[in-house]
Amino acid sequence: GKNEYDLLIIGGGSGGLACAKEAAQFGRKVAVLDYVEPSPQGTKWGLGGTCVNVGCIPKKLMHQAALLGNALKDAQHYGWNIAQPVHHTWSVMAQAVQNYVKSLNWGHRVQLQDKKVKYFNMKGSFSDPHTIRGLTKAGKETIVTAENIVIATGGRPKYPTHIAGALEYGITSDDLFWLKESPGKTLLAYYPFVLHLYEIIVHISLTDASPDVSLECAGFLTGIGLDTTVMMRSIPLRGFDQVSQMASLVTEHMESYGTKFLKRCFPTKVEKLESNRLQVTWKNTDLGTEQTDSFDTVMWAVGK
Protein backbone atom coordinates (compact mmCIF):
# COMPACT_ATOMS: atom_id res chain seq x y z
CA GLY A 1 0.00 0.00 0.00
CA LYS A 2 2.98 2.35 0.08
CA ASN A 3 2.89 5.00 -2.61
CA GLU A 4 5.79 5.02 -5.02
CA TYR A 5 6.00 8.83 -5.23
CA ASP A 6 5.20 11.71 -2.91
CA LEU A 7 3.99 13.80 -5.83
CA LEU A 8 2.96 12.87 -9.37
CA ILE A 9 2.22 15.53 -11.98
CA ILE A 10 0.22 14.82 -15.12
CA GLY A 11 1.37 17.35 -17.71
CA GLY A 12 4.83 18.58 -18.66
CA GLY A 13 4.11 22.19 -19.51
CA SER A 14 5.03 25.40 -17.70
CA GLY A 15 2.86 24.65 -14.66
CA GLY A 16 3.68 20.97 -14.35
CA LEU A 17 7.43 21.39 -14.72
CA ALA A 18 7.59 24.28 -12.26
CA CYS A 19 5.54 22.32 -9.74
CA ALA A 20 7.75 19.24 -10.11
CA LYS A 21 11.05 21.10 -9.73
CA GLU A 22 9.91 23.10 -6.72
CA ALA A 23 8.64 19.98 -4.95
CA ALA A 24 11.88 18.13 -5.67
CA GLN A 25 13.86 20.92 -4.00
CA PHE A 26 12.05 20.05 -0.75
CA GLY A 27 13.38 16.53 -0.97
CA ARG A 28 10.16 14.95 -2.19
CA LYS A 29 10.09 12.00 -4.55
CA VAL A 30 8.51 13.42 -7.70
CA ALA A 31 7.47 12.12 -11.12
CA VAL A 32 6.05 13.78 -14.24
CA LEU A 33 3.88 12.17 -16.91
CA ASP A 34 3.75 14.01 -20.23
CA TYR A 35 2.30 12.89 -23.56
CA VAL A 36 1.26 14.87 -26.64
CA GLU A 37 -1.70 13.58 -28.61
CA PRO A 38 -1.00 14.38 -32.29
CA SER A 39 -3.22 17.11 -33.73
CA PRO A 40 -5.82 16.11 -36.34
CA GLN A 41 -3.16 17.03 -38.92
CA GLY A 42 -0.58 14.79 -37.20
CA THR A 43 1.58 17.44 -35.52
CA LYS A 44 3.27 16.49 -32.25
CA TRP A 45 6.14 17.77 -30.13
CA GLY A 46 8.25 17.19 -27.02
CA LEU A 47 8.39 18.11 -23.35
CA GLY A 48 7.69 21.70 -22.36
CA GLY A 49 4.04 22.37 -23.10
CA THR A 50 2.32 24.96 -25.27
CA CYS A 51 4.60 27.93 -24.56
CA VAL A 52 7.79 26.11 -25.53
CA ASN A 53 6.47 24.15 -28.48
CA VAL A 54 3.47 25.87 -30.07
CA GLY A 55 3.16 29.23 -28.36
CA CYS A 56 5.37 31.97 -26.98
CA ILE A 57 8.79 30.70 -28.04
CA PRO A 58 8.27 29.86 -31.75
CA LYS A 59 5.90 32.83 -32.11
CA LYS A 60 8.50 35.30 -30.83
CA LEU A 61 11.19 33.78 -33.03
CA MET A 62 8.95 34.21 -36.08
CA HIS A 63 8.24 37.79 -35.02
CA GLN A 64 12.00 38.32 -34.93
CA ALA A 65 12.20 37.02 -38.50
CA ALA A 66 9.60 39.59 -39.54
CA LEU A 67 11.38 42.41 -37.70
CA LEU A 68 14.68 41.53 -39.38
CA GLY A 69 12.96 41.65 -42.76
CA ASN A 70 11.67 45.15 -42.06
CA ALA A 71 15.10 46.23 -40.87
CA LEU A 72 16.66 44.99 -44.12
CA LYS A 73 14.20 47.08 -46.11
CA ASP A 74 15.05 50.15 -44.06
CA ALA A 75 18.81 49.52 -44.08
CA GLN A 76 19.36 50.91 -47.59
CA HIS A 77 18.23 54.35 -46.36
CA TYR A 78 21.08 54.22 -43.86
CA GLY A 79 23.75 53.38 -46.41
CA TRP A 80 23.62 49.58 -46.39
CA ASN A 81 23.89 48.03 -49.85
CA ILE A 82 21.21 45.32 -49.70
CA ALA A 83 19.74 43.89 -52.88
CA GLN A 84 16.02 44.50 -53.32
CA PRO A 85 13.49 42.99 -53.16
CA VAL A 86 14.24 41.09 -49.96
CA HIS A 87 13.02 37.48 -50.11
CA HIS A 88 12.10 35.23 -47.19
CA THR A 89 12.39 31.41 -47.22
CA TRP A 90 9.94 29.83 -44.77
CA SER A 91 11.59 26.41 -44.70
CA VAL A 92 14.94 27.83 -43.51
CA MET A 93 13.25 29.82 -40.73
CA ALA A 94 11.03 26.89 -39.73
CA GLN A 95 13.97 24.51 -39.46
CA ALA A 96 15.89 26.93 -37.25
CA VAL A 97 12.86 27.54 -35.01
CA GLN A 98 12.08 23.84 -34.72
CA ASN A 99 15.71 22.98 -33.92
CA TYR A 100 15.71 25.58 -31.15
CA VAL A 101 12.46 24.24 -29.71
CA LYS A 102 13.88 20.71 -29.72
CA SER A 103 16.91 21.96 -27.80
CA LEU A 104 14.53 23.33 -25.16
CA ASN A 105 12.72 19.97 -25.03
CA TRP A 106 16.03 18.29 -24.26
CA GLY A 107 16.95 20.98 -21.73
CA HIS A 108 13.76 20.35 -19.76
CA ARG A 109 14.51 16.63 -19.65
CA VAL A 110 18.02 17.33 -18.35
CA GLN A 111 16.67 19.70 -15.68
CA LEU A 112 14.24 17.04 -14.43
CA GLN A 113 17.05 14.50 -14.33
CA ASP A 114 19.33 16.89 -12.43
CA LYS A 115 16.63 17.41 -9.82
CA LYS A 116 15.97 13.66 -9.63
CA VAL A 117 12.44 13.98 -11.02
CA LYS A 118 11.33 10.85 -12.88
CA TYR A 119 9.98 11.55 -16.36
CA PHE A 120 7.46 9.28 -18.05
CA ASN A 121 6.56 9.88 -21.69
CA MET A 122 3.10 8.40 -21.16
CA LYS A 123 -0.54 9.41 -21.22
CA GLY A 124 -1.98 9.13 -17.72
CA SER A 125 -5.47 8.29 -16.49
CA PHE A 126 -6.82 7.69 -12.98
CA SER A 127 -7.47 4.18 -11.69
CA ASP A 128 -8.17 5.46 -8.17
CA PRO A 129 -7.32 8.63 -6.17
CA HIS A 130 -3.69 7.54 -5.74
CA THR A 131 -3.09 5.37 -8.82
CA ILE A 132 -2.36 6.43 -12.39
CA ARG A 133 -2.41 4.13 -15.39
CA GLY A 134 0.26 5.29 -17.83
CA LEU A 135 0.13 4.28 -21.48
CA THR A 136 2.98 4.71 -23.97
CA LYS A 137 2.60 5.37 -27.69
CA ALA A 138 3.34 1.68 -28.30
CA GLY A 139 0.55 0.69 -25.92
CA LYS A 140 2.74 -0.43 -23.02
CA GLU A 141 1.05 0.07 -19.65
CA THR A 142 2.74 1.23 -16.44
CA ILE A 143 1.02 1.68 -13.06
CA VAL A 144 2.29 4.58 -10.94
CA THR A 145 1.12 5.44 -7.42
CA ALA A 146 1.50 8.70 -5.52
CA GLU A 147 0.37 10.31 -2.28
CA ASN A 148 -0.54 13.53 -4.15
CA ILE A 149 -1.41 13.99 -7.82
CA VAL A 150 -1.49 17.30 -9.70
CA ILE A 151 -3.35 17.71 -12.99
CA ALA A 152 -1.49 20.25 -15.16
CA THR A 153 -2.61 19.27 -18.63
CA GLY A 154 -3.43 22.72 -19.98
CA GLY A 155 -5.57 22.89 -23.11
CA ARG A 156 -5.52 22.39 -26.88
CA PRO A 157 -7.17 24.40 -29.65
CA LYS A 158 -10.61 23.26 -30.77
CA TYR A 159 -12.11 23.05 -34.25
CA PRO A 160 -15.43 24.63 -35.29
CA THR A 161 -16.84 21.25 -36.32
CA HIS A 162 -20.20 22.80 -37.28
CA ILE A 163 -18.43 24.32 -40.31
CA ALA A 164 -18.22 21.83 -43.19
CA GLY A 165 -14.61 20.97 -44.03
CA ALA A 166 -13.13 22.73 -40.98
CA LEU A 167 -11.64 19.61 -39.42
CA GLU A 168 -10.63 17.95 -42.69
CA TYR A 169 -8.81 20.88 -44.22
CA GLY A 170 -7.99 23.36 -41.45
CA ILE A 171 -5.09 23.63 -39.03
CA THR A 172 -4.62 25.35 -35.66
CA SER A 173 -1.72 27.03 -33.89
CA ASP A 174 -0.67 23.51 -32.89
CA ASP A 175 0.34 23.03 -36.53
CA LEU A 176 1.38 26.48 -37.74
CA PHE A 177 4.76 26.59 -36.01
CA TRP A 178 5.70 23.11 -37.23
CA LEU A 179 4.89 23.60 -40.92
CA LYS A 180 7.94 22.71 -42.99
CA GLU A 181 6.75 24.72 -46.00
CA SER A 182 5.21 28.16 -46.21
CA PRO A 183 1.47 28.27 -45.56
CA GLY A 184 1.14 30.66 -48.48
CA LYS A 185 -2.09 32.58 -48.73
CA THR A 186 -3.78 31.90 -45.42
CA LEU A 187 -7.15 32.30 -43.80
CA LEU A 188 -7.37 32.72 -40.04
CA ALA A 189 -10.73 32.32 -38.30
CA TYR A 190 -11.20 33.11 -34.63
CA TYR A 191 -13.99 32.27 -32.18
CA PRO A 192 -13.58 33.54 -28.59
CA PHE A 193 -14.28 30.43 -26.58
CA VAL A 194 -18.03 29.70 -26.78
CA LEU A 195 -19.33 33.20 -26.19
CA HIS A 196 -19.26 34.88 -29.58
CA LEU A 197 -18.46 33.96 -33.12
CA TYR A 198 -15.49 36.14 -34.06
CA GLU A 199 -13.40 34.99 -36.93
CA ILE A 200 -10.13 35.99 -38.37
CA ILE A 201 -9.04 35.02 -41.83
CA VAL A 202 -5.38 35.16 -42.66
CA HIS A 203 -3.99 34.12 -45.99
CA ILE A 204 -2.17 31.47 -44.01
CA SER A 205 -4.27 29.18 -41.90
CA LEU A 206 -3.76 29.93 -38.29
CA THR A 207 -5.58 29.16 -35.04
CA ASP A 208 -5.33 30.08 -31.43
CA ALA A 209 -7.37 30.53 -28.31
CA SER A 210 -7.44 34.31 -28.10
CA PRO A 211 -7.70 37.30 -30.42
CA ASP A 212 -4.35 38.71 -29.31
CA VAL A 213 -2.57 35.54 -30.46
CA SER A 214 -4.48 35.64 -33.73
CA LEU A 215 -3.39 39.19 -34.44
CA GLU A 216 0.17 38.45 -33.32
CA CYS A 217 0.38 35.63 -35.83
CA ALA A 218 -1.21 37.76 -38.53
CA GLY A 219 1.47 40.36 -37.80
CA PHE A 220 4.46 38.08 -38.33
CA LEU A 221 2.86 36.41 -41.35
CA THR A 222 2.45 39.80 -42.97
CA GLY A 223 5.95 40.76 -41.86
CA ILE A 224 7.60 37.87 -43.69
CA GLY A 225 5.75 38.79 -46.87
CA LEU A 226 2.70 36.51 -46.84
CA ASP A 227 -0.71 37.60 -48.09
CA THR A 228 -2.57 37.79 -44.79
CA THR A 229 -6.21 38.65 -44.15
CA VAL A 230 -8.03 38.78 -40.85
CA MET A 231 -11.77 38.14 -40.93
CA MET A 232 -13.83 38.97 -37.87
CA ARG A 233 -17.52 38.76 -37.22
CA SER A 234 -17.40 41.16 -34.28
CA ILE A 235 -15.04 43.87 -33.04
CA PRO A 236 -11.24 43.48 -32.98
CA LEU A 237 -9.69 42.13 -29.76
CA ARG A 238 -13.04 41.45 -28.15
CA GLY A 239 -12.68 41.27 -24.37
CA PHE A 240 -9.79 43.73 -24.37
CA ASP A 241 -9.87 47.44 -23.53
CA GLN A 242 -12.10 49.17 -26.08
CA VAL A 243 -12.50 52.48 -24.20
CA SER A 244 -8.93 53.64 -24.86
CA GLN A 245 -9.29 52.77 -28.57
CA MET A 246 -6.14 50.62 -28.33
CA ALA A 247 -7.87 47.70 -30.08
CA SER A 248 -8.71 49.80 -33.13
CA LEU A 249 -5.24 51.39 -33.10
CA VAL A 250 -3.69 47.91 -33.25
CA THR A 251 -5.73 46.90 -36.29
CA GLU A 252 -5.14 50.26 -37.98
CA HIS A 253 -1.40 49.83 -37.48
CA MET A 254 -1.55 46.30 -38.90
CA GLU A 255 -3.51 47.52 -41.93
CA SER A 256 -0.86 50.16 -42.60
CA TYR A 257 1.71 47.33 -42.84
CA GLY A 258 -0.40 45.26 -45.23
CA THR A 259 -2.62 42.98 -43.13
CA LYS A 260 -6.12 42.89 -44.61
CA PHE A 261 -9.28 42.83 -42.51
CA LEU A 262 -12.71 41.57 -43.51
CA LYS A 263 -15.08 42.85 -40.85
CA ARG A 264 -18.42 41.40 -39.75
CA CYS A 265 -17.93 38.23 -41.74
CA PHE A 266 -17.91 34.54 -40.73
CA PRO A 267 -17.01 31.37 -42.68
CA THR A 268 -19.64 28.74 -43.43
CA LYS A 269 -17.71 26.02 -45.27
CA VAL A 270 -14.31 24.95 -46.58
CA GLU A 271 -13.89 22.90 -49.75
CA LYS A 272 -10.78 21.45 -51.38
CA LEU A 273 -10.33 22.30 -55.06
CA GLU A 274 -8.62 20.15 -57.68
CA SER A 275 -5.64 22.49 -57.42
CA ASN A 276 -5.39 21.51 -53.70
CA ARG A 277 -6.23 25.04 -52.69
CA LEU A 278 -8.98 25.58 -50.13
CA GLN A 279 -12.09 27.46 -51.14
CA VAL A 280 -13.70 29.24 -48.20
CA THR A 281 -17.27 30.48 -48.28
CA TRP A 282 -18.35 33.15 -45.83
CA LYS A 283 -21.23 35.49 -45.08
CA ASN A 284 -21.05 39.24 -44.71
CA THR A 285 -23.51 40.16 -41.96
CA ASP A 286 -23.66 43.85 -42.94
CA LEU A 287 -24.44 43.25 -46.60
CA GLY A 288 -26.27 39.96 -46.20
CA THR A 289 -24.21 38.51 -49.03
CA GLU A 290 -22.21 35.30 -49.47
CA GLN A 291 -18.65 35.45 -50.79
CA THR A 292 -15.85 33.00 -51.59
CA ASP A 293 -12.09 33.05 -52.01
CA SER A 294 -9.36 30.41 -52.17
CA PHE A 295 -6.47 30.00 -49.76
CA ASP A 296 -3.45 27.77 -49.36
CA THR A 297 -4.02 27.34 -45.62
CA VAL A 298 -6.94 27.79 -43.25
CA MET A 299 -6.22 28.09 -39.56
CA TRP A 300 -8.87 28.09 -36.83
CA ALA A 301 -8.68 30.05 -33.59
CA VAL A 302 -11.61 28.63 -31.70
CA GLY A 303 -10.46 28.61 -28.10
CA LYS A 304 -9.30 25.72 -25.94
From TrEMBL:
It holds the Pfam family Pyr_redox_2. Gene3D superfamilies: FAD/NAD(P)-binding domain. One of its GO terms (biological process) is glutathione metabolic process. It comes from the Eukaryota. Keywords: Disulfide bond, FAD, Flavoprotein, Oxidoreductase, Redox-active center. GO terms for molecular function: flavin adenine dinucleotide binding; glutathione-disulfide reductase (NADPH) activity. Its cofactor is FAD. GO terms for cellular component: cytosol; mitochondrion. InterPro entries: FAD/NAD-bd_sf, FAD/NAD-binding_dom, GSHR/TRXR-like, Pyr_OxRdtase_I_AS. The keyword Flavoprotein applies. Transmembrane segments: none annotated. Residues 5-303 form the FAD/NAD(P)-binding domain. Belongs to the class-I pyridine nucleotide-disulfide oxidoreductase family. This is TRXR2 reductase. The gene is Txnrd2.
